[in-house]
Design brief:
Elements (H helix, E strand, L loop, with lengths): L1 E5 L11 H15 L3 E7 L12 E11 L2 E11 L6 E6 L1 H4 L14 H19 L5 E5 L5 H6 L13 E6 L7 E2 L1 H7 L14 E2 L2 E3 H8 L2 E4 L2 H6 L3 H4 L3 H6 L4 E3 L26 H14 L12 E8 L5 H14 L3 E8 L1 H13 L4 E5 L3 H10 L2 E4 L9 H7 L3 E5 L2 H6 L13 E3 L4 H15 L2 H13 L4 H19 L1
Parallel strand pairs: 1-2, 1-6, 2-5, 6-7, 7-11, 11-12, 13-14, 13-16, 14-15, 16-17, 17-18
Antiparallel strand pairs: 3-4, 4-5, 8-10, 9-10
Helix pairs in contact: 1-18, 10-13, 11-12
Bound molecules: adenosine-5'-diphosphate.
Adenosine-5'-diphosphate binds next to helix 1, strand 13, strand 14 and helix 13.
């Protein structure tokens, strides 16, 4: 199957969150399964083209934008450790910047940048003579691909047997655009803008809605999230559209690339370890603490509860912020955070680092190497998310024998099972209500097991034995792609 992946992120070249990891591991798995994926990505200014050996091709693509054309050069490289070709679209006015979506605030021409990109992918396929069976678009940035496929390209011999699959990674970011601009750039014109049209939502053009309405099949990144988003609490206003397309909406759980996230082979951590080598895991913790200025004088055995996260409301940071000091006084643990995001939260964590130098380790910023070290070093991993489409970090942390304390939402509900002392099953601690008391009680239960050696080892073994490999998820997507084809026959 020829799979054209249109994405605004892919690891390791351009990553803002889980989307990048997931697209990358899917492409690798599909290639292993004998499919033919190609990836098309904007050529962002920060991509290290020398390190990853990208080269310019001889092709210039001509991209129709409403009433005019724009030009872009095509570059080519490969996804590391795979033969998957990556094509970069060079349009410096749009993409030669330090950010993907903003730096730090959203760029105000994201409508134009991503509508251009969504149209350009068709012109890339044409110039390469790549006949896709599937166009797989991700989140609002490439949602317009679904509309273009069903309009301008529907009779094009290269695309007329091609189905469109749209994956929702996070409904919180919808691409709400000025209608006149968005419909001018995309060429559809204001005649398409009326209440209830496939572009319109609450008086704006809503790219996420456009993707949902035009796609042959819609997937989202966990089965629970695919059910939750049919209700207003989780739908971010799109419950009507999601229910309307309910028969074509499927949850496929994200998978993990265990070639990258596995303590047995991870070169980023201090000492590699496998399922029964908890002493080596402990060495990772000690080393991490030493690197952060702690000495043998400090109580190195204190349980280490950590987070690696974007600092946004979604991740439950406000819930944590109301109670972190209380927890630090009430319970015995050390807290470590690696995160970047909203200023109100970074200010708060700077304050915590200042006030509790022996109990809190705060790294503000984005640091892949440190994230690996933190997964290996920690005892517990905190995810009090208000909503969580899938979440990868709870799966990474479990692989490293680090026990998640999480809210029952989205993918967290699909991947973590509460530990049961009766039968020694389960690999985490969960709470349901989004409130500080339930959260606090989950932390309390987690800290209790830390001092109960047999159960502490059981739960860590259970966590490490979980298998959320991306191969399973890649196979599930192939099934969805086949369904999408059934639909267009
Ligand atoms: P989301 O996509 O909502 O941010 P996920 O759990 O799906 O959440 O994926 C987050 C990804 O980003 C993981 O690979 C995680 O390790 C990484 N990540 C998040 N914040 C940081 C950070 N500050 N430094 C390094 N990696 C981070």
């Amino acid at each position: 199957m020829n799979i054209l992946i249109a994405t605004s992120e892919i690891a390791p070249f351009a990553k803002a969150g889980g989307l990048a990891d997931v697209v990358s591991s899917l492409a690798i798995e599909w290639a292993k399964l004998g499919e033919t994926p190609i990836v098309i990505l904007p050529k962002y200014g920060f991509i290290d083209i020398y390190k990853y050996a990208f080269e310019p091709t001889e092709h210039t693509i001509i991209v129709p934008m409403g009433q005019w054309f724009e030009y872009a050069r095509l570059w080519q490289g490969f996804l590391p450790n795979s033969g998957v070709p990556i094509y970069l679209i060079e349009h410096n006015i749009y993409f030669d910047r330090n950010g993907i979506y903003g730096d730090p605030n959203e760029y105000n021409d994201n409508d134009r940048r991503f509508i251009f990109f969504s149209r350009a992918i068709f012109e890339v396929a044409k110039i390469l003579n790549f006949k896709p069976d599937i166009i797989h678009a991700h989140d609002y940035h490439t949602a317009f691909c679904m509309a273009f496929l069903k309009s301008y390209y529907i009779h094009d011999p290269l695309f007329k047997e091609c189905a469109g699959v749209f994956t929702i990674h996070n409904l919180a970011y919808q691409g709400k655009f000025n209608p006149e601009n968005a419909l001018m750039y995309s060429g559809f014109g204001m005649k398409e803008f009326y209440p209830g049209s496939w572009f319109e939502k609450y008086g704006t053009v809503n790219a996420m809605k456009t993707g949902i309405m035009f796609a042959d099949k819609i997937t989202t990144v966990s089965p629970t999230y695919s059910r939750e988003i049919r209700y207003p609490y989780f739908s971010e206003g799109l419950q009507d559209e999601l229910n309307q397309r309910g028969a074509d909406l499927i949850g496929v759980l994200n998978g993990v690339n265990y070639d990258e996230w596995n303590p047995e082979i991870d070169n980023e951590i201090f000492e590699k370890y496998s399922i029964n080598e908890f002493d080596k895991k402990y060495n990772n913790k000690k080393q991490f603490l030493f690197e952060h200025g702690f000495t043998n004088e400090d109580d190195l055995d204190l349980p280490l509860i950590s987070m690696v996260t974007r600092l946004t409301e979604q991740k439950g940071i406000d819930l944590l912020a109301t109670k972190l000091e209380y927890f630090l006084h009430k319970y015995k643990f050390r807290f470590a955070l690696l995160g970047s995001g909203e200023r109100r939260y970074t200010d708060f964590f700077h304050y915590i680092a200042w006030k509790y130098p022996k109990l809190a380790i705060i790294d503000i910023g984005y640091n892949n190497n440190l994230s690996h070290k933190l997964f290996a070093a920690s005892d517990f991993f905190l995810m009090p998310s208000r909503f969580e489409p899938c979440g990868l970090t709870q799966m990474y942390s479990m692989k490293y024998g680090t026990i998640p304390i999480a809210r029952i939402a989205g993918g967290l509900a699909d991947t973590i099972m509460e530990y049961n002392y009766e039968n020694s099953q389960g690999s985490g601690f969960l709470f349901w209500q989004y409130n500080a008391d339930d959260f606090s009680y989950a932390i309390e239960r987690a800290l209790q097991i830390y001092n109960n050696q047999p159960h502490w080892n059981n739960i860590r073994r259970n966590a490490m034995a979980n298998n959320f490999s991306s191969e399973k998820s890649a196979l599930d997507y192939i099934e969805v792609f086949n369904w999408a084809h059934e639909k267009i026959k």
